[in-house]
Amino acid sequence: MYDAQGKYEEAKPLYSRALVISEAALGPEHPTVAIRLAHLANLYKTQGLYDQAEGLYHRALRISEAALGPKHPVVAIQLTNTASLYVVQGQYAQAEALLQRAITITKDALGDNHSQVALSLNNLAELYRKQDRYAEAMPLYERALSIDEAALGLEHHYVAIDLNNLAELYRAQGKYAEAEPLYQRALRISETALGSDHPSVAIRLNNLASLYDSQGKYAEAEPLYQRAYGIMKASLGLEHPNTRTVLSNYADFLMKAELTDKIIPLIPNLKMAFPGNFAKEAESKAE
Fold first, then answer.
1. Which residues contact residue 102 at a Cβ distance below 8 angstroms, ignoring those fewer than 6 apart?
2. What are the boundaries of each domain within the chain?
3. E strand or H helix at 213, and its extent?
4. 3-state class of 203 per DSSP?
5. Which CATH architecture has domain 1-110?
6. pLDDT 10s digits, 177-208
7. pLDDT tens-digit readout, 158-177
8. Nearest Cα to Cα of residue 159 among 128, 118, 121
9. How would you class 146 by CB atoms within 10 Å of its CB: exposed for 0-12, middle for 13-18, buried for 19 or more?
10. 0.85 cut: is pTM over it?
């Protein structure tokens, strides 16, 4: 719970304690220990503690391979976790090799049309998108969407994620007309599947608002940013990184659009979230 709220220092001793208990009860080479290691590594990665995370990811992968075999689907998950660390460090070649292996394992173990395969394809496509390898990313995103629609149904939350990812690829290429209906459909699915006040809905709202913002469609963007920020603040709190990202996007937009009357209510929270120059800039714009 603390992790989801962005309260990482509170979460760390709980993850560490769970790891110690699992090691004592099950032995240091048990698959459950690998899961506990991955949880703690994910936390370290989020905090930017990459060296600590890498050692835990590698140990989790080694344990999973030894206990379950190198072609088990859980091994694919551990490979993906490790790859995610390499991605944030910009080590794209290392990440790509792990993600390719994860896809092969998942396909062999679960079949070409399993939703876990779609997730693996999405991960590799995201890596390609980060490198501007759009032509390579596109068929992977499209295949992932096709798999999830067939396996999970047209209104599943995972389908919304696939649509959002594909829309992000179109937006990165300046293909706004193609991106808009995908963002809109992703938003509708997330609202139906998760409820209108879920943090994932706020992400969809933020992304659609950003699309309108980039096109100068300020009247369409502003209420979406406002709603996204309200959902994030209410559900995750101001300290959460996602809330701060949406607040930053919203404040940037308001300054650019010169909507000073809407900046003023945000000033106290901006000062709390961004005590440096950004909050000062917003306050000066509001004067």
1. 76, 77, 79, 80, 83, 120, 123
2. 1-110
3. helix 199-214
4. helix
5. Alpha Horseshoe (1.25)
6. 999 999 999 999 999 999 999 999 999 999 99
7. 999 999 999 999 999 999 99
8. 118
9. middle
10. yes
